[in-house]
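Journal club prep, shared notes

We agreed each person brings one worked example of a sequence with its structure written out as tokens. Mine is Acyl-CoA dehydrogenase NM domain-like protein. I'm keeping it raw so we can talk through how to read the token line rather than staring at a rendered picture. Sequence first:
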Amino acid sequence: MTTNSNSIVVPQTDPSKYAEYETKWSKLSLPGNEDQWIARAREVAGILAEDATIRDQENKSPHAEISLLKHSGLLKILGPKQYGGGEQPWEVGYKTIREVAKGDGSIGMLLGYHLLWSTTANIVGTPEQADRYQKLIISNNYFIGGAVNPRDSDLKITSEGDHIVFNGFKNFNTGGVVSDLTVLEGVYESTENHIFAFVETRQPGVQFAHNWHNVGLRLTESGSVKIENVRTPWADALGWDIEKKVPDQGVLGIPFTSLLLPTIQLVFSNFYLGIALGALEYASKYTISSTRAWPFGGDNKDKATDEFYILERYGNFFAHLRAAETLVDRAGKEASAIYAEFSKDRTGLTARRRGELAEWVASTKVVTTDTGLRVTAGVFEVTGAKATSLKVGLDRFWRDIRTHTLHDPVAYKNRELGRFQLLDEIPEPSWYT
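Then the structure, token by token:
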């Protein structure tokens, strides 16, 4: 248990639960290639899947689960080797998000958001800031949260000498409660210019409401947060000229810095897909062990696994998920290629190339949303009435994917893709594109 600033007792999971894995993995080197990283993520997913249903129902703050991610090394997968990271491309990071989400959608989502926020300085910061924060985050094995919900009013930023000061409120922040650092973003006073900065999470000015009690993704700590007089040095304002107190146009005035948006949208598609794949696997095991054949169909079978309609549904779900996975992997390769080509020379990325990536990502968002919702709801048709028991826990997959697919309306992704197809228009970068 922990007590927040309002003296509310907040139940949390116990990190000592996974102490054996800290001992086990601390004796090993980090995975060295894609297959090894995916194997590590699959191992983490298996551990989480053992009691995912119970943890979902208990809805405790996921301190233990974050410790498991830290022990596994997955938080470091994208970081530079010189600071102890795995130095893998985004396409491998995406696959590990997907694997973890198969076992527990909440923790797959937290891993995905962390990987995005932990690389924020790489995208919108100066080279010096990017290097400094990679060293800080990777060498300390920090977990990163973010309070950057664009639907709310921007945080207000003022200047006080050598520091900037954040104030405001966000209805949603993901993973902040269990984070070491939190990414804040707001608008600088008397301008329309935005500033991103990392701040220490555990300080009086970062006040979590502990009010995340939603239908799904219950272990993501995505509740509201009040930011009150949180100070950080001007030197930490990512991508700003601290002498002139203006955005550094050599950093922020180019398409590269808008890659945060397609990058995180592709994070979404990967944990949607992971959740759906996890549902299909979970349902398949249930059907084999527990679903009964229907005795009133006129073509009676002894086993549910011989039923035509059950085989047909599973086959159809499998085919669509396999197609979705191929599409998501293709988009991941596109993202990795852009980062590999332009991270050293950001000015080379054109608006057109960035827009084409955004349309690959939009395509994955449409397909993983449609397929994920259909599969996670449809598996009940092939498992039977008894599978609706809370003890079985099959419902968590649909609840998880339904919750996050409301993040931003997929209808706008369809419209965006329609304009690309009919008019050859790439989307303007926005907080959701």
